[in-house]
Model the fold of this input.
Amino acid sequence: MTRLMLGRTLERICKAVLLLCLVHFLIMMILYFDVYSQRFDIFSRFNNGRNSSSSRTHPFYNLSRPNATFAGYLGTMNHIPSAHPEANVTSTAKPVPPCPEVPSGLVGRLLIEFSSMMTMERVQKENPNVTEGGRYSPPDCRAKQKVAVIIPFRHRDNHLKYWLHYLHPILRRQKIDYGIYIINQLGEDTFNRAKLLNIGYVESLKEDSYDCFIFSDVDLIPMDDRNLYHCYDQPRHFAIAMDKFGFRLPYAGYFGGVSGLSKKQFLKINGFPNEYWGWGGEDDDIYNRITLNGMKVSRPDVRIGRYRMIKHERDKHNEPNPQRFNKIQNTKNTMKRDGISSLTYRVVQVKKYPLYTNISVEIGKPPPRPMKG
Ligand SMILES: *[C@@H]1O[C@H](CO)[C@@H](O)[C@H](O)[C@H]1NC(C)=O
Ligand SMILES: *[C@@H]1O[C@H](CO)[C@@H](O)[C@H](O)[C@H]1NC(C)=O
Ligand SMILES: *[C@@H]1O[C@H](CO)[C@@H](O)[C@H](O)[C@H]1NC(C)=O
Ligand SMILES: *[C@@H]1O[C@H](CO)[C@@H](O)[C@H](O)[C@H]1NC(C)=O
Ligand SMILES: *[C@@H]1O[C@H](CO)[C@@H](O)[C@H](O)[C@H]1NC(C)=O
Ligand SMILES: *[C@@H]1O[C@H](CO)[C@@H](O)[C@H](O)[C@H]1NC(C)=O
Done:
């Protein structure tokens, strides 16, 4: 009788041990495949190679470390917090608070001038904490948004130095988590600002999961750091009071110079038009897209939204577009087919400099003018 009971107990213990072994084996298999997929990049095509989210799923072990091994991995398992309830999941990540709505280090009105000599070396020295490609994130707080600043560009290297000289420190004081993207139109065909901005949207998203896009001309410098470069509930127009317009909005529907849209707002209007070649009109088309889609432009206070523009000759191959007045009448018909959904271009080079990323693109040329008559 007792022998039978002993037998039963032993049997139960054996079953339990077997079960435990099985569970252990399963866990090992799961971890094994996880490491495997990391090392050989089997699954990277499923996330476009961009969202290597495994570092997020296993914050305690860097699987992309060159010598990551299974044994090494298991060795770290003892440190998984669940085994030590007093340990803190967030304590290994950056233990920083969210950034305040209004950063404390702002100085308000700024003195902006373009007469002093500016070199890239100087601007680099001034900004040691900006990392390759023009990236920065506040060390002492967690920003709510990730902001891609996109600059349409061609032959304006001197302006870019001033822009970087002024903007990096401003954005740093504003506690913005950002990256700077120059979209450089190659060749000498007619310039196309809005198309370059669309490209900036697509290309910056290949670099990081940005949720806010600020589109800035390279010659516009804010004169007040309270003009915060992040996205708002409605599409934002930042450059409302430029010196060249006597520090006033030139007309009510003006949306030029510097503007900002969240990813959601940008997609809602199908991005920007690709078919405005030459100077002018594209910003009005964007304004129409915004209002036609039931949104409203938001703006800073006129005393804060002041800008200084670097004086320059009109660029070559960016003559005023004579078709712009007709085109902006037709936004309602064109915006569904002409936009981020119809964007085509070719990236020729992506180069990361200490203070910005230079993305050089071929964007084609305007279609031949329709015949008169
Ligand atoms: C990357 O991951 C984030 C959050 O995990 C997600 O919101 C985003 O859509 C992903 N991006 C891509 C390209 O898969
Ligand atoms: C993981 O290791 C790789 C290669 O050494 C390194 O580039 C990456 O920054 C590391 N990631 C983290 C989160 O430490
Ligand atoms: C990885 O292992 C190789 C060979 O065992 C060694 O030479 C190398 O220094 C290791 N690298 C790291 C980062 O530990
Ligand atoms: C866990 O992290 C939070 C936020 O960083 C902190 O407030 C809390 O004290 C931590 N708890 C422990 C047990 O470390
Ligand atoms: C750069 O970062 C270091 C360390 O966080 C800090 O001490 C230094 O003041 C920063 N420099 C600038 C110019 O922000
Ligand atoms: C960007 O790269 C292109 C192609 O290499 C180059 O011609 C141009 O000068 C660069 N512009 C800047 C601002 O770095």
The chain is about 30% helix and 15% strand. The longest helix spans residues 2-40. The longest strand covers residues 177-185. Confidence is low (pLDDT under 50) at residues 41-61, 66-83.
